[in-house]
Amino acid sequence: MKKIILICLYLLPSLAIASLDIEQFDSPKQEADYRTLIQELRCPQCQNNNIADSNATIATDMRNKTLELLKQGKSKDEIVEYMIERYGHFVTYDPPITPATILLWVIPLLLVLFGLFFLAQRKKTAKQAVNSDLNSEKMLDQARLNAILNKREK
């Protein structure tokens, strides 16, 4: 049993090496740009992984397309624009401010403010109801006192 475990542990690192993608680059700058781009672009399927860390099919396709575009002589900005055009602003970790993103931030804030306003109005209405009940009781007590005093005076 121990021999089987040792053999498995011995072969495990070779399996990890077998899964690495090996790309051929024309220059060290091209390799550096490739590494930077695959770290900066987000996988549309995995959502919180960049395409370098993702094993999804779409991430593999995006890595291949990035390499292809770099070999065609495209700049990093042109490649990012291509990916945005193809997959949307989600593929970047720093999306631009658009009316849609402003609404995503403003609507929850407005809902919270509306809720606070509603609670304040409800509290104010409850306080007025209590005060009106106290005033009506006070007026009834005053009327009773006046009636008692009027009986004594007669």
How would you portray this structure in words?
This protein folds into two domains: 25-96, Orthogonal Bundle (Helicase, Ruva Protein, domain 3); 98-153. The protein has five helices and no strands. The chain has helices at 2-18, 28-40, 57-71, 76-87, 99-153. 73% of the residues lie in helices and 0% in strands. It has 154 residues and is mainly α. It is elongated, with a radius of gyration of 36 Å. GO terms for molecular function: metal ion binding. It is found in: Periplasm. Residues 1-18 form the signal peptide. Residues 7-149 form the CcmH/CycL/Ccl2/NrfF N-terminal domain. Its main location: periplasm.
Low-confidence stretches: none
CATH topology of the largest domain: Helicase, Ruva Protein, domain 3
Intertermini distance: 114 Å
Instruction: Specify Rg, calculated over alpha carbons.
Output: 36 Å
**Major sheet: size, sense and barrel closure?**
none
Transmembrane segments: 102-120
Keywords: Cytochrome c-type biogenesis, Heme, Iron, Membrane, Metal-binding, Periplasm, Signal, Transmembrane, Transmembrane helix
Signal peptide: 1-18
Subcellular location: Periplasm
